[in-house]
Amino acid sequence: MGLELSKQKFIWVLRDVNRGDNFTGEDRRVELPEGFEERLKDVSLVVREWAPQPEILTRTSTEKREELVSASTIENVVKKLMASEEGNVIR
User: What's the whole-model pTM score?
Assistant: First the structure.
């Protein structure tokens, strides 16, 4: 529901490997809220099986080729999200 409420474009890949619990061995079916895909068909894409990851990542809308994200930037963002009060609120 959070994805829908965010009103952001996204691609969500739901595959067979996402349908089981690796810890308990329990099989589960991923169910999206009723009407989710229909309501978001103009801004999102839900892929049920295989997704062409290289093709998706080379699209200009998903990857800024000229910009390189530094290791320190990633480090700072991860620390902010995982080990700070602000990250607790965001999570």
Answer: 0.51
DSSP structure string for the chain = -HHHHHT--EEEE--GGGGB-TTT--B----PPTTHHHHTTTTEEEESS---HHHHHTSTTT--TT----HHHHHHHHHHHHSSHHHHHH-
* 1/5 Cα distance (integer angstroms): 6
Residues contacting residue 33 through CB under 8 Å, at least 6 positions apart: 1, 4
Q: Distance (Å, rounded) from C-alpha 49 to C-alpha 12?
A: 10
Using alpha carbons only, give the angle 69, 79, 18 rounded to the nearest 5 degrees: 80
What is the tens place of the pLDDT at every residue in 65-83?
667 778 888 888 889 988 9
What amino acid occupies position 57? L
Taking only the tens place, the pLDDT of each residue in 4-33 is 888 888 888 887 655 556 666 666 666 788
